[in-house]
Design a protein that fits this description.
The protein is α+β, with helices and mostly antiparallel strands and 598 residues long. Helices cover 57% and strands 11% of the residues. Strands 3, 4, 5, 6, 7, 10 and 11 form a seven-stranded mixed beta sheet that branches. Strands 1-2 form a two-stranded antiparallel ribbon. It has a two-stranded antiparallel ribbon with strand order 8-9. The radius of gyration is 24 Å and the shape is globular. Bound molecules: flavin-adenine dinucleotide. Flavin-adenine dinucleotide (FAD) binds next to strand 3, strand 5 and helix 13.
Length: 598
Amino acid sequence: MPEYKAPQRDIQFVLNDLLQMEQHYQSLPGCEDATPDMVSAIIEEGARFAERVLSPLNSVGDQQGCTFKDGEVTTPEGFRDAYQQFVEGGWPSLSHSPEFGGQGLPESIGIVINEMVGTANWSWSMYPGLSHGAMNTLEAHGTDEQKQTYLTKLVSGEWTGTMCLTEPHCGTDLGLLRTKAEPNDDGSYRISGTKIFISAGEHDMADNIIHIVLARLPDAPEGTKGISLFIVPKFMPTASGDAGERNAVSCGSLEHKMGIHGNSTCVMNFDGATGYLIGPPNKGLNCMFTFMNTARLGTALQGLAHAEWGFQNSLTYARERLQMRALNGPAAPDKAADPIIVHPEVRKMLLTQKAIAEGGRALIYYCAQLVDKVKLASEEEKALADTQLALLTPIAKAFLTELGFESANHGLQVYGGHGYISEWGMEQNVRDSRISMLYEGTTQIQALDLLGRKVLMSEGKTLMAFTKVIHRFCEAAADEPKMRAFVGPLAKHNKEWGELTQQLGMKAMMNREEVGAASVDYLMYSGYVTLAYFWARMAQVAQQKLAEGSGDAAFYRAKLTTARFYFERMLPRTRSLVETMLSGSDNLMALDEDHFAF
Ligand SMILES: Cc1cc2nc3c(=O)[nH]c(=O)nc-3n(C[C@H](O)[C@H](O)[C@H](O)COP(=O)(O)OP(=O)(O)OC[C@H]3O[C@@H](n4cnc5c(N)ncnc54)[C@H](O)[C@@H]3O)c2cc1C
């Protein structure tokens, strides 16, 4: 049966050896207590919960799914109980402000827990995951009263949250949104409209559900400039702060879908429901970006989760499954055949998953460190971190989810036909991973955001905030003979990244379609270079540890070998991306719409 074991050794490597989290926490006001011992204890506890409580429910959730009856949603067996344990363990409050009952720990610790919980059971993890985004939005934009009423209950985990953007006719293009918000005399609003695809919109795991809803005021300008943000509780809070009378919001039905069956995806009907404005009128989309940025990093994590899960299970299988002999003669002559891990193409699939999971972990934890800085560092550091995060968020979201799906497919392929059979869980992993490239902005939309909004509109400044970091690393490591194999290609790609950006910028001045036509290739290229930076850094740390004779030499040698694999087998994918991104828009736009069908 498929299993999950939290990769604590690698997590500790990234936190301590690569990202120097101890110094990072010491430098941030209010985080001094986050010592390595304390962080390790939290991770160990989180790992136990993920492995023992959530992992066994992963296939249960897939098989049973959520059920809908008379407007109520029942989650799969064990989900509710696991959520109670999660709340009792204080996990929802980990990285939220003590002012509202939180533990005040930095986001970068929360992300480690989210990784383990999400890898063990992605569908389950979405319930608290959505709440986390709702909490961040309220913390950033809510009034004091809203924070006291709603945030404290979300932080304690008694209530959960949702994010209600999508409508039947509008997904990517939120400017088309129609849900109405009409003012009442008491300062509240009547919210009317239908939202679809709402994750965790209705369920039986918590006493109340707080919907964060985008809607339009009566006199709002058209398009995205006329959208406001509202809190709409399922049950109205009473004077004592508990869940009171039912509000006019209900689940109309559940979507039947390809994967993540354990998470409820709901059609939500708002029939004049009472809502309260968050932030200024018509600035809802700006406020919602707080939610979306949290969610985007959270979804990037989904790429890592499916890569890690698929890797762990396919590795176990590849060691046990006996088929054919190694090309240079039997590796296990006492057995009827050799384990499939001896075959180069099986190794390629395993190493690809390993390189994506471990590289992805480094990238996401680095982003989480930037989030800590944006929240807590000095103004100067904050601005720098914010710029880097603006660049890296679409890359992490789209690139890691595309590679997470690729990994999940490799995991299935290692199992051969058995991977296609439900019992092994590998086909579930593929199905569950597919959504990550769609929600929180599709890959295409992340790519437009990266190349158009972040890079070209800032005239390359956002890009330079990160290419400078890579440049400095390459310069500093240039004299280390053992780093040549990494620094040479990395520096070359880093320079090329800037040059490609310039070329695309020039083309875009003549024809804006060039941005759209190059965008996904550009994003994937950016992803491969970004991951190369983290793999080069990990190789450097591994070499240093080996030179120092630190224990665990096998771990560091494996790191080095995987880094080499990444540089020699994955980074060269950029060559074809360069060709296609520069091939121009004409090969896409020349065909007349009416002639596509021939
Ligand atoms: C399981 C699931 C859970 C979800 N959870 C939530 C949730 O909790 N809350 C919520 O509000 N929504 C949620 N969604 C909705 C999700 O965010 C949207 O499906 C997504 O944003 C895409 O919108 P759409 O489906 O309308 O596709 P469309 O916007 O219609 O896009 C269709 C295709 O066109 C492409 N496209 C569109 N515009 C462009 C462009 N300018 N350039 C290039 N390509 C373009 C897209 O990339 C896509 O491939 C969920 C969806 C699913 C399936």
